Amino acid sequence: MRREGRAGYLFLMPWFIGMVAFTIGPILGSLYLSFTKYPLLKPPEWTGLANYERMLDDPRLHKAMWNTAQYVFVSVPLQLVLALALAMLLNRGVRGLAFYRSVYYLPSLLAGSVSIAILWRQIFGADGLINQILGLFGIEGESWVQHPDFALGTLVVLNAWTFGAPMVIFLAGLRQIPVSLYEAADVDGATGWSKFFHITLPLLTPVIFFNLVMQMIGAFQSFTQAFVVSGGEGGPVDSTLLYTLYLYQRGFRAFDMGYASALAWVLLAVIALLTALNFLLAKRWVFYGD
Question: What is the CATH number of the domain that holds 276?
């Protein structure tokens, strides 16, 4: 057994080396750098909590945090509502289900790609598809991605449009709900809305919770959409300056790696706290069959 154990660890050694060298090592390195002044071209200089204190007086950071909060807490619920609605539609026995499921899942695969972000910028541009449609009704539009009141909304719509992944998970969850429960409700004269609120939603809450946590974490990490749509600058008056975009600007444009590392750790802490809060609140509304 010892020989087999040693052989097992030997085969796992490349993975352990990769985990230490490319995951744990950089994580600990960034934690150290978050307490330093590191202009990238010079050795890091220990400054203690200076980077974290600096965040309190950084107006662009505050703007990025507010934009990110709006982006996450508006786009994620909208995305989940669209995903659930479409999953329930497909669950009604539509012919060609596999085809529709693949088509609706496709945007999720391309969500983080540069090509989709460029396409989105063209659609909401001054001469884009949206303004062409509005022109048919005599409405003269403007560049939505360059308007400070609407630029962030275009990113919210883009994130909500990528509902394919949660939709597939919702569809799998709907298939697990026993049909006998709906049949019993029909015998009792329950309406469609009554069955939805008293059968479908309660039994689907574990799936809703999973999708909520995963999509919220993904939304906090959104970068490509804001970078491409805004040209990497954060849009008009920083209206599309998301947290990750500002982190990128500080680290790879200003070469302020110490401050960027501190920003990364704050983002990790925020995601961890919100995830823990979700798990804490889940005890009040998530229903498990057992």
Answer: 1.10.3720.10
Closest CA to 124 of 249, 243, 245, 240: 240
The pair phi, psi for residue 7, each rounded to 5°, is -65, -40
CA distances in angstroms from 2 to 14, 15, 141, listed in the order given: 20, 20, 73
**Is residue 255, in this structure, part of any structural domain at all?**
yes
The pair of three-digit structure tokens given for residue 219, joined into one six-digit string:
């939304």
Instruction: For residue 23, give the DSSP letter.
Output: I
> Phi and psi for 24 in degrees, rounded to 5?
-65, -45
- For the chain, how many structural domains are there in total? 1
> CA dihedral in degrees (88, 93, 96, 99; nearest 10)?
20
Cα–Cα distances in angstroms (integers) from residue 68 to residues 195, 219, 242, in the given order = 36, 8, 5
Report angle CA 181, 206, 168 to the nearest 5 degrees: 85
Three-class DSSP category at 84: helix
CA distance linking residue 196 with residue 201, whole number of Å:
6
23 occurs within a structural domain = no
Q: Would you give per-residue pLDDT tens digits along the chain (290 residues)?
A: 777 788 888 889 999 999 988 999 999 999 999 999 999 888 999 999 999 999 999 999 999 999 999 999 999 999 999 999 988 888 876 676 667 667 777 666 666 566 677 777 778 877 777 878 878 777 777 778 888 888 898 889 888 888 888 998 998 999 889 989 998 999 988 888 999 999 999 999 999 999 999 999 999 999 988 888 877 788 888 889 999 999 999 999 999 999 999 999 999 999 999 999 999 999 899 988 65
Domain annotation covers residue 155 = yes
Domain hosting 179: range is 54-285
Is 114 within the bounds of a domain?
yes
Q: Residue 46 forms beta bridges with which residues?
A: 36
